[in-house]
Amino acid sequence: MSTTDTNDTSDAGVGNTDKTGGPRSPRTTAGPGPDNRGGPPLALRASGALLRWRTIDLLTCAFLGVAFGVAYWAWSLAYQPPSTALATVFPPLQGITAAPWLMAGVVGGLVIRRPGAALFCELIAAVVEALVGNVWGLSTLWSGLLQGAGAELAFLILGYASFGVGAAVLAGALSAPFEAVYEWYAYWTDWGMAYKVVYLLILTASGAVVAGGVGWLLTRGLARAGALGAFPPGQEQREARAV
Amino acid sequence: MSSLAGAPVRVEHLTWRPFGRRAPVLDDVDLRIGAGERVLLVGPSGSGKSTLLRALGGLLLTADSGDLTGVVTIDGRDPQSVAGLVGLVLQDPGSGVVATSVGRDVAFGLENLGLPRDAMTGPVSRALREVHLDVPVGAPPSSLSGGEQQRLALAGALALGPRVLLLDEPLAMLDAETAATMRAVVSEVVAARGLTLVVVEHRLGPWLPHVDRLVVLGAGGRPVADGAPYDVLARQGDDLTSAGIWVPGRAEPEPIRLEIPWDSAVVATGEAVVTAQDVTVRHRSRSLATRIRETVAVRDVTLAVPAGRLTALVGPSGAGKSSLLGAVGGLLEPAAGTVTWAPELALPDQTPPHRLAPVDLARRVAWVPQRAASTLIARTVDDEVLTTARAVALDPGVARARADVLLDRLGLAHLTSADPRQLSGGEQRRLALAAAVVHQPALLLTDEPTVGQDRHTWAAVMGVVGSLRASGSAVLVTTHDAGVVARADAVHTLAAPAHRTEPPTATAVPLVARAGPLSLLAAALLVLPLPALLHSWQQALVVVAAELVLGATVLAAPGPGTRPRGRGRSVLRRLVAPTVGALGVGWSTWLLGGHDVAVAVGATLRIVTLTLPSVVVLPYVDPDALSDHLAQRLLLPARPVVAFSAALGRFQSFGALWAELALARRVRGVGGGRSPAARARDVGGTTFGLFVGVLGAAAVLALAMDARGFAGADRRTWAGAAPWRRADTVAVLLGLVPAAVAAAAGAAGTLGTVLG
After folding, report:
1. What is the pTM of this model?
2. Closest CA to B199 of B172, B224, B177
């Protein structure tokens, strides 16, 4: 049991130099394909060329987006009581119950690890949520775009090379500000500026913890469940626990 | 023969080790298949048959990763070098469906090739004719039966003119009659086109007249027997049988004997454990735009399930066997009729079966669905087997003893600390069965338990079933396996429900439905700037009124035909959630805005103006047309749009998966707790299961799509047109109305204050 724990932390390290080859990195996609021909192991990066989306990347991103959309639609029905309770205490605390919506971009980016993955996933989740019929209708699309763009920015800052807990937390945090500013303008128009700023800070913090932390845990759980065989998170997990 | 004739296949030194396995699945495999040869590929479970098939199609790295060395060539070329060179049909009907109409699905490969729209109709109708699929090209694939869906998949592969056809257990999910039809169609097509055929199948016998060569795989995917079918079987029949292969002409395997310490039965043998009287089950399917369709799955069926007996439910697919199983077991609520337990099992307050608490339900019923992976909850195999036993508070020593015997005899003893989701499909099925019987439920429901099993695992599964039956529990099985039916004490046949073809009445189309999806989305999005324009609640009220008038206008359906029903009701239903949300915003505004009611009302109304257009418009956005328009009008990149549209098309099946997962948790006695923590764990577990299932579906679909040339289809054409009509321009103009009204109301307001 303890060996797997150390493997986990080494897989998740942001500063891990496994990019150039570490003792545990598996070779990815070696074989007939335009990819890694016996070059240095690329354990943490996306499988294959960074900008070349494979079919499995597109479908996984889209299907993840739809799954998140379904979950988000359910959450948009269930979040009212806790949200109203928080609002009664202190309205900007509603940023806490809004945090789950920031998760799709984080998870999309962590799994697929390509430019555009976070944005695509969050956008599809927003479309599905809107089409099924949620509270906010089509303005959900705009929210999804802003949140996805924020998460995408985080991964861009890290050069699409780092995908551990730190990256997840950063992505979760950065997907909040754009959304918060939009909400200032659309929903919380009548609040004072101080409250608006507090809302942004709360949303950013819960984005970091909930969307980043839970999103990272979800990705790791999915990798452990063997659902991410074609992706780096799955590859890392499976080699660590080879059967 | 024309250039469409079969191509020779060469495999040289192929080694494939997926990450996560210590030993390679395919170990230095060599194989040569001649042009036009028809090969049957068999082997015991775990010998890598499906993997080798995927290797022949060049699809190993499509949905998986690992170490791959060696060469596979089709007529000297890489299998993926030419789109559609290799056609693939998968085991699960419907798993490779890409579009929402039959014709569109067949045309998918042609779109990837970049054929012009007019050139597609010919090959599509030819392919549909070849597989004898006589359905309208606009029919949705979900309305087809399993056999028809497999033929649809075959037509989709044929439309591209393949030279090699690969079939991965195409008949496993079909009943005998449908399977025979499919086999005949395959034979005919292969003969007419002269294709090279490679079929992987467990049940050899029926395929033997249709193939020229039998290849038996052993460990590491290496052929251990190869030659003319009857010769191989005559020479090595005994070895093959002892390896677990279904050699025709041999005796049926004997179910294994299990020594499990059961308790004495609760209900006397022969007495009905549960009786279903005149039960009708309705099936509601909900597609993305709230078109809820209700079909009758089971009509007026009476069934008594006796204790200590094995009852088999047979019938063609679509006859409602799974629904009846669910109704009898208390998993679903029947639309009509009653389901009653034996007196020994009934609860004191006469709760109907579908309302039982999870633990009470788990004591009485165990359920193993067709998708056995849906019931897997725990982190290790050992925990999985003991989950329900712990939930019903079975004595730990007894549970341990039973679990040990089951794990050992079902071949899972070496996997006790493995994650259940890492197991192969067959292992997961056996694990789900073991986990279902440890606590000795009074009734066991299994849906197709013997699909895809070799002789040994078949014997193990039937051994468990037999042991439970002997202990006095009732077993209800849906199956199309003749061996299971032969061992059943009672067989109940369900006929397919008669399709009531209603004459299509011409319904008038509401005005809003006449506009395409892009213009509708644009119209609904044009309200986004409204919050900047609305400064008072009176202004917002005027805009809301304008939007209501506009909404009522566009929902009107003038013209010939009957009025469409339920438009107003649907709008009201969709308005509930947004109204609650708007009130929530108003509430926080009131709290923070100095308890000013006018400001709070203004905030509420502002949200209503934002959400009202979406409520009216979104049900009429057609998801299929949406992707056509996105790609052709907005010129978004083609492949992401296709992925988006394929995912949208699966929405309904994801909802069904969620329901199945939630139900499985309930049946296993886990979940249903009232505390927030228990609810959170329930929802978390079900959501996680949904994600795992969804990702699996993505991987399978990626195989099917890449086999039809999707991998390189950056420049592709579209079978559906994306016209921009006058109605679209009108829709966009109408979308500007709320903003215009807001501006006008604002100006009038300022004017009023200035003058007054």
Report:
1. 0.87
2. B172
Q: In this complex, which of B419, B521, B574 lies closest to A224 when CB atoms are compared?
A: B419
Residue A14's pLDDT band (cuts 50, 70, 90): very low
C-alpha–C-alpha distance, residues B121 and B110, integer Å: 10
Contact A230 B22 (CB under 8 A): no
Q: What digits encode the pLDDT tens for the residues B365-375?
A: 999 998 888 88
pLDDT digits (tens, 9 = 90+) for A41-58: 334 566 677 788 999 999
- Sequence-distant (6+) residues with CB within 8 A of B261 are B398, B401, B402
Task: State whether residue A242 sits within 8 Å of chain B by CB.
Answer: yes
Q: Where are the alpha helices (DSSP H) in B417-479?
A: 425-437, 455-470
Strand B38-42 relative to strand B213-217, pairing = parallel
Task: Please tell me if residue B424 touches chain A, with a CB cutoff of 8 Å.
Answer: no
Instruction: Give B417's contacts (C-beta < 8 A, 6+ positions apart).
Output: B380, B381, B382
Would you state the structure tokens that stand for residue B221, as one six-digit string?
A: 């995917």
C-alpha B640/C-alpha B227 separation (Å) is: 45
- Give me B358's structure tokens: 């999870």
Domains of chain B: 272-493 (3.40.50.300), 517-621+726-755 (no CATH)
CB–CB contact A229 B64 (8 Å): yes
Label residue B680 exposed, middle or buried (CB < 10 Å: 0-12, 13-18, 19+). exposed
In this structure, are residues B588 and A94 in contact, taking their beta carbons and an 8 Å threshold? yes
Chosen from B17, B19, B688 to mutate, greatest number of chain A CBs within 10 A: B19
Tokens at A108, concatenated:
């999309």
Structure tokens at B574: 């969709």
Q: How many C-beta atoms lie closer than 10 Å to residue B530's C-beta?
A: 24
CB-CB contact of B463 with B386 (8 Å): no
Whether the CB of B618 is below 8 Å from some CB of chain A: the reply is yes
Q: Which residue has the tokens 């724990």?
A: A5
**Does the structure show a pLDDT above 60 at A2?**
no
Structural domains of chain A, ranges and CATH numbers in brackets: 56-232 (1.10.1760)
Distance CA B704, CA B96 (A): 5
Read off the tokens for A96: 């806490």
Q: Is residue B169 pLDDT above 50, yes or no?
A: yes
Q: CA nearest B80: which of B60, B57, B109? A: B57
Strand ranges of the sheet holding B9-18, from the earlier edge strand across to the other edge:
B26-33, B9-18, B66-74
Query: Is B61–A33 a contact, with Cβ atoms under 8 angstroms apart?
Result: yes
Pairs from A223-228 (Cβ < 8 Å, separation ≥ 24): A224/B419, A225/B419, A225/B421, A225/B422, A225/B688, A225/B692, A226/B20, A226/B419, A226/B421, A226/B422, A227/B421, A227/B691, A227/B692, A227/B695, A227/B696, A228/A111, A228/B695
pLDDT at B360 over 50: yes
What is the arithmetic mean of pLDDT over A171-200? Answer: 89
In one-letter notation, the amino acid at residue A230 is A
CA-nearest residue of chain A to B655?
A: A70
Q: ∠ at Cα B316 (B314, B320), nearest 5°? A: 75
The amino acid at residue B482 is: A
Asked if residue B1 has pLDDT above 60, the reply is no
Contacts of B154 (CB under 8 A, 6+ apart): B87, B89, B131, B185, B186, B189
Contact B255, B466 (CB under 8 A): yes
Contact B591 A60 (CB under 8 A): no
The string of pLDDT tens digits covering residues B559-593 is 777 777 777 787 888 888 888 888 888 888 888 76
Please, are residues B442 and B360 in contact by the beta-carbon 8 Å criterion?
no
Q: Which amino acid is at B537?
A: W
